[in-house]
Amino acid sequence: MSITASSLTPLLIALEIIISPPALDKPAEVIFQILPVVAAVLAAIATVSLAAFKHRESWVTHRSACELLKREVQLFRYGAGPYAEAANASAVLVERAEALMESEGREWKRLYAAESGVYRGDLTT
After folding, report:
1. Of 109, 96, 70, which Cα lies nearest the Cα of 124?
2. CA distance 53 to 29
3. Is residue 35 part of a domain?
4. What average pLDDT score do residues 20-30 get?
5. In this structure, are 112 and 59 located in the same domain?
6. CB 49 within 8 A of CB 55
7. How far apart are CA 89 and CA 79, in angstroms?
8. Which of 104, 116, 113, 120 has the alpha carbon at shortest distance from 59?
């Protein structure tokens, strides 16, 4: 829906300019009638780009992994959670951080490789 709306906006604005063109002897009016068309075209391109290249989903996946890694560092730093009774807390941190990063890699692969078929290799190798 947003792609359709953002794509129709510049068309409708341009149609309005065609129906009632600005006076060419007033350059400010011309600029202020063309500027919304340019802004609407840029918005349409950005909307389509976000949808087509899955930037939003990728960003959410990345930020989730970052926040989970921050949490692990805090648990490690204060000796809480799985680090409270661990004989080698550093090893536990590395194992849990690697598991989180591997999970992010699998999610990235699911987002991009399933549809495009560009990458079919195993991320763990």
Report:
1. 109
2. 37
3. yes
4. 82
5. yes
6. yes
7. 8
8. 104
48, 9: one domain: yes
Cβ(60)–Cβ(33) under 8 Å? Answer: no
Q: Can you read off the two tokens belonging to residue 53?
A: 């290249």
Using left for φ > 0, alpha for ψ between -120 and 50, and beta otherwise, residue 45 falls in alpha
111 touches 57 (CB < 8 A): yes
Tokens matching residue 25? 């002897």
Q: How many Cα atoms are found within 13 Å in the side-chain-facing hemisphere of 5?
A: 2
Verdict on whether the full-model pTM lies above 0.70: no
Q: Which residues contact 54 (CB under 8 A, 6 or more apart)?
A: 111, 112
Does the pLDDT of residue 98 top 90, yes or no?
A: yes
Position 90, amino acid: S
Residue range 38-51, pLDDT digits in tens: 888 888 888 888 77
